[in-house]
Structures are given as C-alpha cells and as structure tokens.
Amino acid sequence: MKWDVRRIREWKFYEHPQGATILEAGNSLYYQTGSWRTFRPVWIGEKCTHCLYCFIFCPDAAVKVSKEKIAGFDYEHCKGCGICATECPREAIEMVEEQRESDR
Amino acid sequence: MTAKKKVAAITANVACAYAMKQIDPDVVPAYPITPQTTIMEEFSNYVADGAVNTRLMRVESEHSAMSAAIGASAAGARVMTATSSQGLALMWEMLYIASALRLPIVMQNVNRALSAPINIHCDHSDSMGARDAGWIQLFSENAQEAYDNTIQAVKIAEDMRVRLPVMVLYDGFIVSHAIDRVELLDDEVVKDFIGDFKPVYSLLDVDNPVTVGPFDSLNGYYFEFKRMQEEVMRRAKSVIIKVGEEFMKVSGRSYGLFETYQIEDAEYVLVLLGSAAGTARVAVDNLRQQGIRIGLLKLRVFRPFPFEEIAKALNSAKIVAVLDRSISPGSQGGPVFQEVCSALYSFDCSPVIVNYIYGLGGREIELAHFFKVVSDLEDLSEKRSKESFVRYLNLRE
Ligand code: SF4
Ligand code: SF4
Questions:
Q1: What is the CATH number of the domain that holds B371?
Q2: In chain B, what is the greatest distance between 2 CA atoms, to the nearest angstrom?
Q3: Structural domain tally of chain A?
Q4: What is the ipTM of this complex?
Q5: Which one of A47, B152, B195, B361 is CB 3.0 to 4.6 Å from B119, fit for a cystine?
Q6: pTM for this model (two decimals)
C-alpha cells in the first residue's frame, strides 16, 4: 500500500494507519524537520579532506554528497546537533549560532 | 468436537500454562510475581522440554516484560505474558503503549490486591486500575474459564477488526491455586481454532519498512488515534461474541459478554464478576427455595463494557445490587457499580441500584454475606426507597 501523507490534514480519525504506524520510509522529505535548529554547521572547504565521516555520522542524512565529495548541508533537515562537527577529524565544520535575518 | 473428553484435575495457573503450550507463542517475556508465578514455572518446563518453540525471555522487571512484549509484537511475533498486582502496576506506561500501537498481546493477570499493606491475596484493584489502558478485559470464574478465555483471547486479539491486547483475569489463589476440574481441548483443536499469526506490519519486513511509535505533536493526530482506539474497542464486542460462538462449536461451552442465572422473573439481581459468582449461584438457589425472586448476572467482559446489553438484562428488575471486589477512594462506589449505573441511566432503566464493596485483600465472602445483601434489599423494597447506597460486606465496622 502506498501512503500519500500530503493529504493527512484531511484524514478522518478512522483513515489513519492503525497504531500511528508510519508506512512509508523517507517521508520527512515532506517536512522541514530542521526548523528548530539553534546552531548551524558551516563547512570550511579548504580544511576538508572529503573523508565523509560527517556524512556517515549525521543522524538525519543532512550532509549532502555529490561524486564522493562533500556538497554542503541540507538545512531543511539538519537539526543542528553538531555531531558532524565533533566527529570531523580536520575541524572543517564550525557550529555557528542561528540568527534572525534582521540580526545578521 | 472430539468424542472422548480429556479432563484434568489442575489449578487455573497450570491450565493456563497448558493453554500457552497449545498456543505455542513465538515470544514470552515474563517476570515472576505471586500468584502468577506458577504459570511461568509450568510454562518454562514446556520450554525446557522442547514442547514449544517459544523464546522465553527472563527479564529484570515487569516493565521490561511488557516492553519486550511490545518490541517482539511490533517485530511480528505472537506474544504472551502474565503478571499480577504490583507487576501490572509496574507495567503501567507500557500497557497504554501496547494498546495504542494496536499490538495483539495476550496476558493473564491473576488478580491480587495492591500494596500497602502488602497483601498477596485476591481483589480486583490491580486490573480495575488498568481499565482505561485500552486493553480488552475478560474475567473468569474458575480454572475452566481461565483456560477457555486464554484460548479465545488469542483469537479476539488477533482478529483483523480488533488488533488490541487482551487481559485474561482470574482470582488470585481462590482460582489460580485451587485444584479444579478442567476439560482440555486437543492440541490440534486449539491450533486450528486460533490459526496462524499474521502481523499487520512487521519491523523485520525489510521490504516494507515502517516506523512504529512516532512522535505526535501539538498539531498532530493524537486525538484521532485515541478516538480510533475507542471505536475499535467498541467493535470488539461483536468479535468477542462471534469468537464465543465458534468456541462453543469446538468445546461445547458457551461464552458471551456476561452470563445470567435466574434473572427472567427476578425482582432482585446480583451483579458481580470473578470467583464469587459460584457462591452467589448457591445463594440464589437457596433464596429461590424460600420464594425470593432473585437472580445473578456474572460479567465476563469488563472492557469493552456491554452497556446496552446489561441495561436490557436488568431493566425489569426492581433492585440491582452490584458487588465490587475493589475500591475507588473518593468515588461513588466501585468500578463495576459505576459502569452499571451509567448503563442504567443512559438507557433510562428503572431499577434502584446499590453497591457492596467486598473481598478486599482476599477477605472471605460466604453465603451468609449474600443473605445479608438480600435482607437489605428486602428492607429497601418494603420502604419503597429509591435511594442508592454503598455498603461494605464482611468488614469490621
Ligand atoms: S568529516 Fe570533516 S574532513 Fe571529513 S568530509 Fe566531513 S567536513 Fe570534510
Ligand atoms: S549538525 Fe547534526 S543534523 Fe546537522 S548535518 Fe551535522 S550531524 Fe547532521
């Protein structure tokens, strides 16, 4: 059964899958799960050796990789946990406090 | 039905362990607690002897037992466990999760009082406390019913229209440890009756990955899920009746939502659940011989509570006495009383209804106590009183 979550707001109580089970993997693509981040990872390209540790450790698959090289972060889904920055052996990721647009 | 009946002289705990052997669940996580212990003691013999394929998990607490049961059930296994009293209390938060995730776990809870003071004997306060946890609750009067309910519970829980956990309840020591006559079904009959377990979703099904137990926020769907649980619980009633009818065909023993005895022309009706029904039946026979028109309604299904059916059954009675084996401090009477009151009120029924709290911590209930109830009812009837009361049976007061 394919589960189209985009109309979930309209579902009646008896239309949900039983037990609040989520039947489709990867549906966080439909949501901005990174909206509550307080620190954002910033990549410092010149220090990076593209070892991909950050990609492996990120719990939210928010490190973008293209052709086996780091290609920045998916800020819509990065929650700002800082694991990537902690694990990076080259200190090539800096955690920077989020600011309102107006304060930048 | 098999031609030759297999009859055994065994306790309810042994009978339930035997039912579990016949059911052969995939996973049984359990922790011992009096008076449940001998179920698992007996069942672990079957495991050690290789008589079942069950993975028996000896966990460090009842909280872990129910947590493991939830995990195993979500993984797609048929899961059973058993507990009592403080053990059920320790499972508390997990009980709600098992039912909300719609996991068809079957558990015997051998009814025992809750501390303090520490008391290992029977009353119903443990499972009555869990009445809002979203589990189906089937009460049993004796070892035969405990055995039969355990087998039916599997089929009820796993019915695709239900998919809820079921608690099988019977009185600690009075039923759990007393040797009783029990008719046992053949292994094949039980196997055919319950059928194979089919998980709705399975965490082990890597081709169809699912997320179980997600977070649901302020703008989420929690309210919808709770309403769905309530709807499913309501619908479970007809499945319980249907499973009872099917069980009748294989066992010759009939099961419904409740059992009535001599209530057709009864002025007075006693309502109760559990082992005291046996004594109550003898009291009814005795009083009938004296010309008193009295009957008995023994509840089997407490959740979902059969409101309409009970109201209908009690409508022509003059006075209904509900006997509760648990206490709800600060409320008007015990939990069974409250349910029966709301049934009668909702369907605009006329009987006067009174409540007796009895048997807490294993306190005896004997024929004389039932006679006392009925003499109270006769007084009420003479005075034409419409007033309700809550009284205590066999209490030093
Ligand atoms: S862990 Fe550091 S060095 Fe390695 S790829 Fe990521 S940013 Fe570059
Ligand atoms: S901060 Fe956390 S979530 Fe964001 S990219 Fe780094 S590891 Fe992933």
A1: 3.40.50.920
A2: 72
A3: 1
A4: 0.84
A5: B361
A6: 0.92
